[in-house]
Amino acid sequence: MNYLAHLYLSRPTVPSRVGNLLGDYRRGTLGEPLSPAVRRGLENHHAVDAFTDRHPLVREARGRFSARRRRFAGIALDVLFDHFLIRHWERFATTALDDWIDRLYRDLRAGRPLMPAAMGEATERMVRRDLFRAYGELETVGHVLDRLAARIRFENRFHGVIGEIRDQEQELEAVFLEFFPQLVRHIDSLAIEADPPD
Question: Is the whole-model pTM more than 0.90?
Answer without folding.
Answer: yes
